[in-house]
Specification:
mainly alpha, Ferritin
């Protein structure tokens, strides 16, 4: 899979002649808008993963409890990094549940009692969804030459693809 591309000299010259959407007048477009969605996605996934860590039961308890803890801690690092990139782009970072729920591509889980297999299905789907979305957002960050966002998206794609596989493997 190819995540990062090196632009040709011609395309680089064309990009430099166009103002970056994310830098023009502080508008929430392009990379800035994508980073706000990414922050929301990661925050809600962190919360959902931590919820499942607290509430998982059954024969898979120990392995899932440990895996979910490792994953929500890693996601917390991505949450912080996403907010820091927004601040570096001179944009405020959203910080309320209302904003996160509105901007996120994934749904929060409000069911009180889920079995381990349902948790596995939900988190596998969320990680897979985010990996796919982030491939699109990566392209925007590359086009706008936002190196920090490009690096973050590459790391997020790798993490979410691996996380989906690690969780899904519990069903085998």
């Amino acid at each position: 899979m190819k995540y990062a591309t090196t632009p040709s000299k011609e395309s680089t010259a064309n990009l430099r002649s166009m103002p970056s959407q994310s830098k023009s007048k502080g508008l929430d477009t392009g990379t800035i808008a994508d980073m706000k969605k990414t922050l929301a996605d990661e925050y809600l996934l962190q919360l959902k993963t931590q919820n499942f860590h607290w509430n998982v039961e059954g024969p898979l308890f120990f392995s899932l409890h440990k895996l979910f803890e490792e994953q929500y801690n890693k996601i917390a690092e991505f949450v912080d990094e996403s907010a820091e990139i927004l601040r570096a782009l001179k944009s405020p970072a959203p910080g309320s549940f209302t904003e996160f729920k509105k901007a996120s591509s994934i749904e929060e889980c409000t069911e009180e009692k889920l079995n381990a297999n349902k948790m596995i299905d939900i988190l596998t789907a969320d990680h897979t969804t985010l990996a796919e979305l982030y491939k699109e957002r990566l392209e925007t960050a590359e086009a706008e030459e936002e190196t920090s966002a490009v690096t973050l998206y590459e790391d997020l794609i790798t993490f979410h693809e691996k996380a989906a596989w690690m969780i899904r493997s519990h069903l085998a």
